[in-house]
Design goal:
heterodimer; A: 165 residues; alpha/beta; Beta Polymerase, domain 2; 5-stranded mixed beta sheet; two-stranded parallel ribbon; 4 helices; B: 373 residues; alpha+beta; Cytochrome-c3 Hydrogenase, chain B; 3-stranded antiparallel beta sheet
Chain lengths: 165, 373
């Protein structure tokens, strides 16, 4: 059985190899392996799209599967967490992007890199009010169209006491 | 006098039709806004949120034991596997090793869940394309599994059998025998599924070459489970990231390359055979021992981020827990398989006929609570 499992993991890069390669593209990235099972990269919003498209197109990294896209509110910062996997090499990586602008948080959309991001970014917009540049159809996905506020933000006030007792 | 019956004088025009939210083929409250030109689909836009229950928000309020019980209200046909995902995430975060007995029982019940889900899907799939008999065949066999669940877990659909650290209680004394009886019974019935529906010429004409999703698109749209495997993308979490007892069983990943509705159908039929094989390998070898490891009454996860993925009947379910060390998560995200699979519907449907949309949606195997959460 273990042989079978090995077959699936071809040319998988270790976290330190990934870090060495990716840090050579951009010197402003922050790497961390603390408190997570993945290698985490924090990228500035202006470099986000460039980094992610390079992570997909580079043949050594080849992160072509975006398996999770999560909106986050870290208290002061709003942001997005991208969980990536390579379907050829089977290594995994997490990319984070943050902004302290709570009035008008905006990142570049990654719909053109992974089609699945279209729905996921709509969900993030719905819950956190994070806007995505170049998104083809950014609108509320689950909440009613006239809903006021972004319910998964930590400073959201649940006036009708629907969830938080 | 000008004739009005010349072909060119007819005007073709695009128009909207509304499908759902109450529609027998959408399997729940899913609404599709369709733009069609004659019978040809030009655009499909899902309108979601009809049964949105803000599960992710509720999770931020609840303790980890309580969260487990919310998850079987997502994809209710994979209830046990959803529970398992959260339990595994919590156990891994705590560094808790569960007894071997728990791993094996979890795996057997997970495979029974997958079988029950695929049986229901098969019955409904036939019904969606006009073969009503399949519905009764599927539900007849699914009933045996539900009886096993009822006896051991106390519930037929939302089982709530997993808890962080193990199982709620030990298996019923009849569990092993009844499971064996079911496997023997279903092995004789599964070939009937093929003779009734798979080989049917009308069925094949309605499904072959319809709703094709290429491997590139399947990966780009983040599809998983049978939908992705029908397009040739090998993505079985049970193989790639084995959990519970999947590291010790021998089974094949159902993989087809056509990417059409018929391939998605065949993946699920083959998966039923594989599930039977997995159960057969484990049912006689359930190790003795405890059915749970003791945990604290109040579970507090260490500070950090934890991701656990499992293979439900619909594909890859991810649980992403961000903990700040308290008794409830700071943020909890469910990456549900149905959500990503549904996003690929537009790619499959545009350009094909309206009548084929129902067959395509049947093989996406949509469970709307899983999408809306």
């Amino acid at each position: 059985m273990t042989d079978l499992i090995k077959v699936y993991k071809i040319n998988s890069m270790t976290n330190s190899d990934l870090q060495t390669l990716i840090s050579s593209w951009n010197s402003e990235l922050e790497f961390s392996e603390a408190e997570s099972q993945f290698l985490n990269i924090t990228v500035k919003p202006e470099h986000l799209h460039e980094l992610l498209s390079q992570l997909k197109s580079n043949t050594e990294t080849s992160f072509d599967y975006l398996f999770c896209l999560t909106g986050m509110d870290w208290g002061t910062d709003l942001g997005v967490v991208y969980h990536l996997e390579s379907t050829t090499h089977r290594h995994q990586l997490v990319v984070k992007v943050k902004t302290s602008d709570r009035e008008n948080p905006t990142f570049d959309s990654v719909c053109d890199i992974w089609s699945t991001a279209e729905f996921h970014e709509m969900e993030v917009f719905d819950y956190f009010g994070i806007k995505f540049n170049n998104h083809p159809n950014l609108k509320r996905l689950f909440m009613p169209k006239d809903w006021v506020g972004y319910p998964l933000r930590k400073d959201y006030v649940d006036e009708v006491n629907m969830i938080i007792k | 006098m000008e004739t009005t019956f010349e072909k060119n004088s007819f005007k073709s025009e695009e128009y909207f039709i509304n499908m759902g939210p109450q529609h027998p083929a959408t399997h729940g409250v899913l609404r599709l806004l369709l733009t069609i030109d004659g019978e040809i689909i030009k655009n499909v836009e899902p309108d979601l949120g009809y049964i949105h229950r803000s599960i992710e928000k509720m999770c931020e309020r609840d303790s980890y034991q309580q969260i487990v019980h919310l998850t079987d209200r997502m994809d209710y046909l994979s209830a046990h596997i959803n529970n398992e995902a959260v339990c595994l995430a919590v156990e891994n975060a705590l560094g808790l090793e569960v007894p071997e007995r728990v791993k094996v029982i979890r795996t057997i019940i997970a495979e029974l869940t997958r079988l029950a889900s695929h049986q229901l899907w098969w019955g409904v799939m036939g019904m969606d394309v006009g073969a009503l008999t399949t519905y009764f065949y599927g539900f007849r066999d699914r009933e045996m599994i539900n009886d096993i669940f009822e006896e051991t877990c106390g519930a037929r659909l939302t089982m709530n059998y997993n808890i962080p650290g193990g199982l709620m209680f030990d298996i019923h004394p009849n569990f092993v025998q009844r499971t064996k009886d079911f496997v023997a019974h279903f092995k004789t019935k599964l070939p009937e599924y093929d003779t009734l529906l798979t080989g049917n010429v009308i069925f094949q004409k309605r499904t072959k070459g319809v709703g094709i999703l290429t491997k590139e698109d399947a990966i780009s749209f983040g599809t998983s489970g049978p939908v992705a495997r029908a397009s040739g993308y090998s993505c079985d979490v049970r193989k790639l990231h084995p959990y519970s007892a999947y590291d010790r069983v021998n089974f094949n990943e159902a993989l087809f390359t056509e990417g059409d509705t018929f391939a998605r159908y065949r993946v699920r039929i083959q998966e039923m055979w594989e599930s039977l094989a997995i159960i057969e390998q484990l049912i006689d070898n359930i190790p003795e021992g405890d059915y749970k490891t003791a945990t604290n009454a109040v579970i507090k996860l260490p500070k950090g981020e934890f991701y656990q993925k499992v293979e439900t009947a619909r594909g890859e379910l991810g649980v992403f827990i961000v903990s700040d060390g308290k008794k409830n998560p700071y943020r909890l995200k469910f990456r549900s398989p149905g959500f990503s699979n549904l996003s690929a519907l537009k790619k499959m449907a545009v350009g094909s006929k309206l009548g084929d949309l129902v067959a395509m949606m049947a093989t996406l195997d949509i469970v709307v609570p899983d999408i809306d959460r």
